[in-house]
Amino acid sequence: MKKLLSMSLVICMTMVMVALFSGNALAETVKMVGTVVSFTVSDDQKTVTAVVKDNKTEKDVIIVITDETTVTKFKEHVIKNGDEIRSTFEKSGDTNKAKVFKKTAGC
After folding, report:
1. What is d(CA 69, CA 22) in angstroms, rounded to the nearest whole number?
2. How far apart are CA 33 and CA 85, in angstroms?
3. Which of 21, 35, 90, 99: CA 20 to 30 A from 28?
4. Domains plus CATH for the chain?
C-alpha cells in the first residue's frame, strides 16, 4: 500500500512539473534585423509596441518592448521610424516580447 501511494505521489509530482514548465517550452526565441515602420508608446509610458519590417522575409512583425531603457529611447526619439534595429524576442502565441531591441549602428 505504501509503495502504491509513493508511486502515485511521484507520478503526480511529475505531471505538475511538466505542466509548470511546458509554458516556457512553448516560447520560441527569434533573432531578426529589420527596419522600424511605426511604434506606439502606451498610455502609462511603460511599454512600446513597434512594427518592424524583417529584412529577410519582408514581413511586418509586431514586437512589444517593456525594457525601461529602450522605452525611454523611443520616447526621446533616439530610436525612430526608419531606423534599422537588431532584435531578439520570445514568440509565444500571438505575442512577441522583446528581450533585446537595439539599433544596428549601436545605441
Report:
1. 30
2. 6
3. 35
4. 28-103 (2.40.50.140)
> What distance in Å separates the CA atoms of residue 37 and residue 51, rounded to the nearest whole number?
5
- Which H/E stretch holds residue 106? none
Q: Which residues contact 54 (CB under 8 A, 6 or more apart)?
A: 32, 33, 34, 60, 61
Maximum Cα–Cα distance across the chain: 69
Going by the DSSP 8-state scheme, the letter that residue 81 receives in this structure is T
* Grid cell digits, residue 59: 514581413
Q: Which pTM value belongs to this model? A: 0.73
**pLDDT (tens digit, 9 = 90+) per residue, 12-21?**
667 666 655 6
Q: How far is residue 63 CA from its own chain's centroid?
A: 7
